[in-house]
Amino acid sequence: MTSENIQSFEPDIWAGMECSYNRVGDIFIDQLSQSQHYERLDDIEHFARLGIKALHYPLLWERYQPQLASLIQWDWAASQLNKLRSLSILPIVGLLHHGSGPSFTHLLDDGFAEGLSAFAKQVANEFPWLTHYKPINEPLTTARFAGLYGLWHPHAKNDVVFAKILLNQLKGIVLSMQEIRKINPDAKLIQTEDLAKTYSTPSLQYQADFENQRRWLTYDFLMGNFDRHHPLWSYFFDLGIPEKMLLFFSDNPCPPDLLGVNHYVTSERYLDDNLSLYPSHLHGGNSKEAYSDIEAVRINHGQPSGLKILLKELHQRYPIDIALTEVHLHCTREEQLRWLKHVWDICVALNQEKVTVKALTVWSLLGAYGWDKLLTQPNGEYESGIYDLRSPAPRQTALAHYVKALSTGTPYYHPLLQQKGWWQKQSRFIHPPLPKSIDGPVEVSSPPLLLLVDNGSLSRAFEVSCHQRGIKYQVLNHQLRNDGVGSSLEEAVLLYKPWAIVNATDYTKRMNNEQKVGNSMMHQVKEMRQLIAICEKYNIKPLTLSSVLVFDGTKNSPYLESDDVKPQSFFGKNMVEIEEMAVGGHCQALIIRRGFCFSPWESLDLGDGSSSYLENHYSFFDSAHTIISPTYTPDLVNMALDLLIDNESGIWHLSNRGEMKCSDFVREINRRKGTVIQQKTLLPPKRVTPLPYRPLYYALSSEKGNFLPVIDNALDRYFAEASFK
């Protein structure tokens, strides 16, 4: 098949911002406020550079009409919509996104549907040229979360409330589209819903069958297909839902013009009545029996599953064109890239099979907040998307480059896309199939990441992280390189053809003796010079790590990337030389400066309050006074790999957010261990030869972005993950 023919089957690229505006108790959680979209004037221009054809843009009821009598201010909406119009980007306007309406209404309010439709009428009057609407996003999902699971307002856990919430929302969609079409008869309804499926053990098949009928309710009702012959008619009727309310939809059909599919890797579920196989937080059930509800992707259930199967089922049930309206994965960068490619390939394949998928929507342009807690708490954990908001301005990730290539029909290549996503590997299973099978080697044609390693925790962290993330890698041992045994660096490059090289050797543990430091550092400078030369020769990107010790420690606030370097030790001077060498090369080197690091493979042996661990790692630290930024090595390494995949270059500071005195760090470690120490034991141990310099301030921050969690969070995970326990 020619490239022209293949392109004819490619869907358009749409995009959307995570814009949930949900209610928990009396608290409204607004994603776009958290992402500061309303404070930036140039987001639309950034999005346009991706080459997208359409943008899901929210004009949310809760935000624009917080009070019933309030006069709606349209200035912001008008400016954004007019930008989209001038850029030839189609706006798809949403009015509710997992919301329950403003504070003067709620999902069980008898006037909810009429209130929403009145707001929809105002939107259409103000912007009569708008043609594409999704009045309520995922009404079935919202009804489950708010009416069955108790997560969102009104926090109910019963079927009656679920049914009323669902029907109230669906009626709101019907009435809204009626009002909109009075103003613009050609207005299109794009109805989004989570495309899910449930699998189960044989004894729970009845529950799976029920949930697999329930998943179609949004479309069944809107299309006017819900009548007395519907499989779930008796379910609603037995709940006491009036027949008139049910028949409203067959009397007022509002079929979508396009089926909007939101699908996540966890959308498919598996029900298992063997509770002993799963932790208690996965235990649940219905009114008849208890069972666990698990992501189906984690279970080797042997039934046809996955997005392609589900899209075919959807098309068979409703022969209407489809658009993927949310495509996103909360995971590491390479897995995000793989998920996007996975979904894109499915869309192209289905179009070839005459199952029309008109568009793929890259979701979470600005990332998302709090979905790790299902939007039940404000200020939740941030996950990046096409852009990373942890920088002062939205920073393009590797996803942005991939999206632009897909939008423009430009070939995009990254070796990491040639490897399987975690959802495709045997290792994903909670209970591996018998006989136990393992993933075969990664495709031979996939170039690896080359790690230059020693026996330190930094090297181990890179190896562990690459293994966990499914990043194919090869190692070149530091000792072999020093001894001239085995492959030289250039021989390894010619053999493995790596896409990048990480210098993961750690010289900070050799700093107690300046003479040893000098010998070691002279070799490191020579090795770095060789690395840069080879990277320039073979067009390979290098990543290397530097140190906070390029600074003099006299500043009163955290050091930033633009601060002048003033090393006070031989080690620091050599690190500056290495940095200058890397930055001055022509290979787009990425240099990560770090401070004091701790890893789960090393015990913070501070039980007696001594600073031995700190002294052995950073001999220039005065544990009683020096201020540092303790950094968890796995956090450092994972973010460094993300930046490498994003093709960032130059000098970046990475540290867990916050700072503390070495002595306070010692106290905190011992407090968590339950060890009581005396102030006098916090002083550094006596030395035969005093160290030449002991600065007082070595905390790091970054003007390029604060990417790592706070120190307390890092310590929580250290004590949970440490292998020495």
From TrEMBL:
<comment type="function">
    <text>Catalyzes the reduction of dTDP-6-deoxy-L-lyxo-4-hexulose to yield dTDP-L-rhamnose.</text>
</comment>
<dbReference type="InterPro" id="IPR005913">
    <property type="entry name" value="dTDP_dehydrorham_reduct"/>
</dbReference>
<dbReference type="GO" id="GO:0005975">
    <property type="term" value="P:carbohydrate metabolic process"/>
</dbReference>
<dbReference type="GO" id="GO:0019305">
    <property type="term" value="P:dTDP-rhamnose biosynthetic process"/>
</dbReference>
<dbReference type="InterPro" id="IPR017853">
    <property type="entry name" value="GH"/>
</dbReference>
<dbReference type="Pfam" id="PF04321">
    <property type="entry name" value="RmlD_sub_bind"/>
</dbReference>
<comment type="pathway">
    <text>Carbohydrate biosynthesis; dTDP-L-rhamnose biosynthesis.</text>
</comment>
<protein>
    <recommendedName>
        <fullName>dTDP-4-dehydrorhamnose reductase</fullName>
        <ecNumber>1.1.1.133</ecNumber>
    </recommendedName>
</protein>
<dbReference type="GO" id="GO:0004553">
    <property type="term" value="F:hydrolase activity, hydrolyzing O-glycosyl compounds"/>
</dbReference>
<dbReference type="InterPro" id="IPR029903">
    <property type="entry name" value="RmlD-like-bd"/>
</dbReference>
<dbReference type="Pfam" id="PF00232">
    <property type="entry name" value="Glyco_hydro_1"/>
</dbReference>
<dbReference type="InterPro" id="IPR036291">
    <property type="entry name" value="NAD(P)-bd_dom_sf"/>
</dbReference>
<feature type="domain" description="RmlD-like substrate binding">
    <location>
        <begin position="450"/>
        <end position="677"/>
    </location>
</feature>
<comment type="similarity">
    <text>Belongs to the dTDP-4-dehydrorhamnose reductase family.</text>
</comment>
<dbReference type="InterPro" id="IPR001360">
    <property type="entry name" value="Glyco_hydro_1"/>
</dbReference>
<keyword id="KW-0560">Oxidoreductase</keyword>
<dbReference type="GO" id="GO:0008831">
    <property type="term" value="F:dTDP-4-dehydrorhamnose reductase activity"/>
</dbReference>
<keyword id="KW-0521">NADP</keyword>
